[in-house]
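Reference record
================
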Amino acid sequence: MISVAGETLNGQRLIEFRLGHEAESEQGLAVERAELLVRAEVRSRRPRFTLWAFTVAGNGSETRVGPLAGAARGAGRAWQRLDVTRAARQWAARGARAPLRLLLDCSGCAGRVRLRLGGAAAARPLLRLTLAARAARRRRALDCDAAARGGCCRQTYYVSFRALGWDDWIVAPEGYYANYCRGACAPFLNYHAQVVEAARLERAACCAPVRFSALSLIYFGADSNIIKRDLPEMVVEECDCP
């Protein structure tokens, strides 16, 4: 999501979230969960504060505060998290053509907590959307559930960052399909034949990855800024017998 600092309302700065070109779709978005991350710079020990996020509708003189989008009590970490699923779903249901506009308010922040709503992109508010799963267009012949029995195929394998305990520093995604290759290469579909042929040729055809794709990772860096990095060859897309 692209975050920009918008206009002000009653002296408070609004934040807007727009879809990037890569996320735009004529079919719309099916939002499963939405989380707003806001960086708070705490200037006192153990401050007690509550963040409130409200939707904002209209423009110019017609700008008005809408329903409560989410709330969260301040925590010790720099990045505060607010569940704004309901507001994001309503925004997506309207087509997400216009930006999602939010007003942030803070009870107990005055003089003790500063919210970073603008400045460098790595410190701006972030809206993390989890979309409902859709049927993926895949070449089913590559997958083990559709391949010939015992033949070389791609086995789907999901890595959950939450299960690994990495969700405290990885913002998105929550996990990914790494996948791996398994099975024998024709015509050696049984172990005995493959061993004999390997001894004769001093090598054996091996079911292995022949095509990969990258993984886009968003995470907190050492300075608590948000970093986006594309990691090459993280997802096995296709297996064959090279």
The helical segments are 85-93, 191-201. Residues 191-201 form the longest helix (11 residues). The chain has a mean pLDDT of 79.
